[in-house]
């Protein structure tokens, strides 16, 4: 079904994410937010933020997302004028994910076909909404035909709509269809977007972001056979919708999956980390920008990343890419000193919780280790989701040592 409403965003905003409780290392889901308000804004590179648990309100058990991994968390801007009856505040939309994991490791076992991939049991198509202003979770039951149950999919906000694509579910790879959850009205509704011509095809572990508040970009992932490095763009301001395969100039990332992609407000996309075809975690970050003449170009981001990682989360707050968690493979999480990191794109440096990073950290942290700083402990996880609302970052769910 084609969406009649334009998919073009109407305002410049940062993405946001939500949580049921707080981001912690124990099996229960937690929600954490970055401590920014009430502190003076410092000039120059600043250390990565700290996180705290936020206990959200859940009136009925089914309203809370519960334990899950491989889900998405997407920030949707407010609707209407504040103070009027029609006003709806900023929300975080959690979709899908798996409520159980086959195997007991941060690195998933092979797929039934023998290819490296995920085998997540209990994949869902649930939709949960976190109201940022009221600190309350609600289970949504949108009208229309929902997407199939899935995990390791992608989602991004286009105005007051959440676009979902790809992933993998109980029956294998999800179709490449674009599904849109329209949150403009009081009652949410699912739509299936009609897109002409060939597209990215079914895949999971890929990334998607809205660039320049116009171009929906999908990059990389795994098609069930191998990691990919292709880049596809859909112009949300042009109908009929169609995917276009891009051939960016410059040195781009290798074929990889489980990376993150975040768009800065000025239109720069930053792809960070991931896992390559040899299952090696990556540390580099790459910027992708569109020139005025229509050319797209990759460039390696400056600075020294504190650690390679995949299955992490990353969101922009102003010019700072806030990175949390991630896996190293072999059941190991990212080292404690690097589990929270920031790429300051204005200064061109990476920072951890203590200082500017001048050399890579050595990953020594075991997923089952105990102790350490409580704020850092909250971010030691993988397959979680994060989003930002204003100056606050929210993290939800994920795995710690093979547990939800």
Automatic annotation (TrEMBL):
Record region (Disordered): 1-48
InterPro entries: Kelch-typ_b-propeller
Pfam short name (any one): Kelch_KLHDC2_KLHL20_DRC7
Signal sequence bounds: none
Compositionally skewed regions (Basic and acidic residues) per UniProt: 10-37
Entry-linked Gene3D superfamilies: Kelch-type beta propeller
Superkingdom per UniProt: Eukaryota
Protein name: Serine/threonine-protein phosphatase
């Amino acid at each position: 079904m084609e969406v009649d409403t334009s998919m073009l965003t109407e305002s410049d905003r940062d993405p946001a994410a939500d949580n049921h409780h707080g981001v912690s290392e124990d099996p229960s889901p937690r929600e954490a937010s970055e401590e920014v308000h009430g502190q003076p804004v410092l000039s120059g590179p600043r250390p990565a933020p700290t996180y705290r648990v936020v206990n959200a309100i859940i009136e009925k058990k089914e309203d809370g997302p519960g334990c899950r991994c491989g889900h998405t968390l997407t920030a949707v801007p407010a609707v209407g004028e504040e103070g009027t009856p029609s006003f709806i505040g900023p929300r975080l939309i959690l979709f899908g994910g798996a409520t159980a994991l086959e195997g007991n490791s941060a690195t998933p076992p092979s797929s039934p076909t023998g290819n490296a991939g995920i085998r997540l049991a209990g994949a869902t198509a649930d939709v949960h909404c976190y109201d940022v202003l009221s600190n309350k979770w609600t289970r949504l039951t949108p009208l229309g035909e929902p997407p199939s149950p899935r995990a390791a999919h992608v989602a991004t906000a286009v105005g007051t709509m959440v676009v979902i694509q790809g992933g993998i579910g109980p029956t294998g790879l999800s179709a490449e269809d674009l599904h849109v959850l329209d949150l403009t009205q009081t009652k949410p509704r699912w739509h299936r977007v009609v897109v002409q011509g060939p597209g990215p095809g079914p895949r999971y572990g890929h990334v998607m972001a809205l660039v320049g508040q116009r171009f929906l970009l999908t990059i990389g992932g795994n098609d069930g056979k191998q990691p990919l490095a292709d880049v596809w763009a859909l112009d949300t301001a042009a109908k009929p919708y169609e995917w276009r395969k891009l051939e960016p100039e410059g040195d781009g990332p290798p074929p990889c999956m489980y990376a993150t992609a975040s768009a800065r407000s000025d239109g720069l996309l930053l792809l960070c980390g991931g896992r390559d075809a040899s299952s090696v975690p990556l540390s580099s970050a790459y910027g992708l920008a569109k020139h005025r003449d229509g050319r797209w170009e990759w460039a390696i981001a400056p600075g020294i990343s504190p650690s390679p990682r995949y299955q992490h989360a990353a969101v922009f707050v102003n010019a700072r890419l806030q990175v949390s968690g991630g896996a190293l493979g072999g059941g190991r999480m990212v080292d404690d000193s690097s589990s929270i990191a920031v790429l300051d794109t204005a200064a061109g440096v990476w920072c951890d919780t203590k200082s500017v990073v001048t050399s890579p950290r050595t990953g020594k942290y075991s997923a089952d280790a105990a102790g350490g700083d409580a704020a850092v402990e909250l971010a030691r996880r993988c397959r979680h989701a994060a989003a930002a609302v204003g100056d606050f970052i929210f993290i939800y769910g994920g795995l710690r040592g093979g547990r939800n």
